[in-house]
Design brief:
6 helices; globular; alpha/beta; 7-stranded mixed sheet; 33% strand; Rossmann fold; 28% helix
């Protein structure tokens, strides 16, 4: 692994946002991740959402518990040689872990600033094979097929559910799987129930994230076509 450089600062129209550094162990390796703040517990999430300065921190540049859970789930699977699309990559941890295990990874995010952090994190951990793309789910033009489509905490906005379903149905190989990490949000559960009713098979693994009690429960859902 390459030696980490000093944390960067994001320069935005809303002001400068210092990037913090966290180290965590996934699959027997220590990963160094830059972010504009870690939001792990439910209390931290409520404080973040109610903070009047939240607009200075893009949602995607924050380290969320679902990304940590998804990274562990990805590491527990045989992803070597698989083609993986990560939606709303944010700080990028799950896709970075996948690429380090031999997967061919495309990481996407709608915000250029967020994708900048994602790219920095890949470089910071010596992972140089990832392709990074700016992408908007509502103006999706990718026609490639992927063995795995992954995303962490991307189901919270119900107006975007049709666009996400279009991507799942269009870009997944016939034998592929969608892997989604979510902290049991109500809009997310409604989408998963609707997809199951439409014939998708869904299996869930439960992870807990965080050191300070109570840890945050996160479901990682594997969706496959019936």
């Amino acid at each position: 692994m390459t030696a980490p450089t000093d944390p960067d600062v994001l320069h935005t129209t809303a002001g400068d946002m210092p990037l913090e550094e966290v180290q965590m162990n996934v699959h027997g390796r220590t990963w160094t991740i830059l972010h504009t703040g870690a939001v792990i517990s439910r209390e931290q999430e409520l404080a973040f959402l109610l903070d009047e300065n939240t607009t200075r921190r893009p949602y995607g540049s924050v380290l969320w518990p679902s990304a940590i859970a998804l990274a562990h789930e990805v590491a527990s699977r045989d992803v070597g040689g698989k083609r993986i699309l990560e939606l709303g990559a944010g700080t990028g941890l799950p896709g970075i872990v996948a690429a380090s295990l031999g997967a061919s990874v495309v990481q996407t995010d709608r915000q250029k600033l967020v994708l900048h952090v994602c790219t920095q994190n890949a470089e910071r951990n010596g992972v140089t094979t990832i392709e990074h793309r700016i992408a908007d789910w509502t103006a999706w033009d990718d026609t490639e097929r992927y063995d795995l489509i992954i995303g962490s905490d991307i189901l919270y906005a119900e107006p975007l559910h049709p666009a996400l379903r279009h991507i799942f149905e269009t870009n997944l190989t016939p034998t592929g799987a969608v892997l989604l990490a979510d902290p049991f949000r109500e809009p997310s559960v409604r989408l998963l129930e609707a997809m199951e009713a439409d014939g998708w098979r869904i299996r869930m693994d439960k992870w807990t994230v965080g050191i300070t009690p109570p840890p945050r429960p996160v479901g990682v859902y594997a969706l496959t076509r019936a």
